[in-house]
Amino acid sequence: MIRIDEIYYNTFLPLIQSKSNQCAHFFDPFGTTDFENLCQVPYTENTEKNFLFWDQEPLHLDVHCKTIEKFSEVFKSNHTVLVTSEHNSEAVKSLCKRFGFSEAYYFFHGWASLDWYRGYNRTFLRPANNIKHTFLFPNNIVGGKRRHRLELFSELEKRNLISDNLISFPKVCSYEKKSVAELASEYGFDPITTELPLKIDNIENYAYNSHQINMWDLASQSLVHVVSETVFYGKRQHLTEKTFKPIVMQQPFILASCQRSLEYLRKYGFETFSSVWDESYDTLPDDQRIKAIGLLLEDLEHSNCREWLSEQCAPIVEHNFNHFYGGGFERVLWKELTSMVETW
User: Fold this and answer.
1) Count of H helices and E strands in the chain?
2) In this structure, are 154 and 292 located in the same domain?
């Protein structure tokens, strides 16, 4: 298994350094995207080929073009390869066309999840199922390109699905420091009437502890985990460690992410739940997907057969857990990564 905090030095750099006049550029600390936080190893004025690793965070053209422009000005070379964790991304293709970069892709967050969640298959943290709620829906950051979380919360509120389920939702976004009322107004949503914040755990600084799992009791009480991913809008697939939390906690899941994200996840050997409930929401365009997820959750809320549904999901949940911890997922990731670097 690759240690994600050493992935550049131990995995990519030995290959890049084995060839003359090549340089790797990556952000440190993790999660930053400012030009000042770029590391260059090794870099000389004779560098002919740059590898820019933009694999930790999604790429937003309206936010990140300044960093890319600065990079292009400072690190002139014959060629730059932009390495991302976004599959089939219009934003990446547009940027590469604009700056003359080549693009490369591997699933960084798949490797991160294997590293961060190692050992949770050898634990007694999760109690036996005692399902009392339809869904678990944790949230922390609701600004900063994450308007879909507020949109989904608003949809659940309209369907009276808030009070009887396990939901965390802030009153003030920890990232933008704006209130939910301000953000709802900016996004053009109806005012939120639920008294906020909603808190279902005792986590502090949640955004900085996303690599930890500590909602075991809540998971055991919920039929399904609603994963509100980092990216929702636009043509791309970009999943993070959030998607793997229910897999590790052995829960069924509904994925609020980019179009065809479930299809994307299945390509890595995981199974989803179309045999148990309607997953057609995954195929719908951005302006229809939230409503479809709300309708699905409403149907599950009023199904009166949570235990039966849980039993139907159990073989899929077991397969996903075993695929994650049994080496199957890692083998797919390694084949993907080595196929990528063979082109370098």
Assistant:
1) 12, 9
2) yes
